[in-house]
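sorry for the late reply, my laptop died twice this morning and i had to redo everyting from scratch. anyway the thing you sent over, i finally got around to it. pasting the sequence first so we're on the same page, its 175 residues, then the predicted structure underneath. double check i copied it right bc i was rushing
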Amino acid sequence: MPLPKALFNLFNIQTVKKPMAAKKKSNLSAGNEQLHLQNQLCFALHSASRAVTRLYAPILKQHKLTYPQYLALMVLWQKDGQSIQSIADHLEIDQATTTPLLQRLEKLGFVTRERSREDERRVEVWLTTTGKRMYKEAGEISSQIVCGVGISMEEAVDIINKMKAVKASIASNQS
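ok and here's the structure:
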């Protein structure tokens, strides 16, 4: 007579299951190169972006910065005293993601956050002396990245322009 299921649960008894037959692996995309991951534009963009971000990591680590924090500083180097929402818009991320990023930059001494004098609901972000000093080192960082990628500055500009064209094309096709 088999034991009731409740006893198995009560005493944490494991039942022995018969091994399943191994499934035969298949290659659905065999003969259709278009569907191979390495042939996808989205994957090429994604993996290239991750590779470049990995190049930045050890360089920025020397300054105790992450890549997103570095991008936020770049926005402020173009125009200091921006609102959190403006920075989020430039970085194309949510304001809820931007706030903790800026809080960490403030703790590191690169920025200060202050209430706007015109509208107290708005918080403005300002570069500190340390943040401004980092700008002087940023040119060297950019050169190291271009060198690490193994392309000329002209090729980098060409790739940037092509990426902007891809983005603009997608935006115009969505509207």
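The beta strands are 82-83, 111-115, 123-127.
thats about all i looked at so far, will dig more tmrw
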